[in-house]
Write a structure and sequence with these properties.
The chain contains 4 helices and 4 strands, in the order E-H-H-E-E-H-H-E. By secondary structure, the protein is α+β, with helices and mostly antiparallel strands. Helix 1 runs antiparallel to helix 4. It is globular, with a radius of gyration of 13 Å.
Amino acid sequence: MLKVHVKYHLKPGTQADFLAGVTEKTLQDAVLNEDGCLKYEYIPAEGVPDLVLLEEEWTSLQAQQTHLKQPHMARIAELKDQYMDHMDLDMEEV
């Protein structure tokens, strides 16, 4: 299993808009229905208004890499371009 931890450091004051976009039901359903997806959850960081965490779990690295190439990921890329300052990414195989 692969766990992915992402920290999205957002432009000031954009956390609510970013979360509204990335948690749209159609986007979430599309990701959660991908082969190999076990968890995909955006979490607003408590006490840090411009930080959003993303917790992902995949059956394999290959499943996660295939996920990045899905058509619905273009919408998420647009949202990141619009609201994100930078991100930190950590992956671990369990």
